[in-house]
Specification:
The chain has 124 residues and is mainly α. It has one domain (4-123). It has four helices and no strands. The chain is flat, with a radius of gyration of 17 Å. The protein starts with a helix and ends with a helix.
Length: 124
């Protein structure tokens, strides 16, 4: 997709949908409430891409550094997430199904990668 407005439009639509599903899950009316976190992560991804799209078009050295550092920092943050989930599940602090863990980790991965790119684009 080449349009910044397209990314922002899809991001806001997904944000509204995830809010609707989270509200429905809180009232107990919807079956799809665990997926709301994943849809929220996708809305963060599209909003981040909408913000970064003009900078990604340039293909300069700055964007290459932002991508490399973003992946580097995201790797260590994801290792922290894994360690945290292993610890919490091992000591029975939380009781989550395997599908729940996969959805949570996928959501955290998507949000971490794209938010780290946005933060690094502000810093660098």
């Amino acid at each position: 997709m080449k349009s910044r407005l397209g990314y922002l439009f899809i991001g806001f639509l997904l944000l509204i949908e995830s809010g609707y599903l989270i509200y429905g899950g809180a009232t107990g009316n919807f079956f799809l409430s665990p997926i709301a976190g994943l849809i929220f992560a996708l809305s963060i991804m599209f909003l981040s891409l909408g913000y970064l799209q003009p900078q990604f078009e340039k293909k300069d050295e700055r964007m290459k550094v932002i991508r490399e550092k973003g992946m580097f920092y995201s790797y260590f943050i994801l290792m922290f997430y894994f360690l945290l989930f292993i610890t919490l599940i091992h000591f029975n602090v939380i009781s989550v199904s395997a599908m729940g863990v996969v959805i949570i980790l996928a959501s955290l991965t998507i949000m971490t990668v794209f938010l780290s790119l946005v933060i690094l684009s502000w810093i660098l």
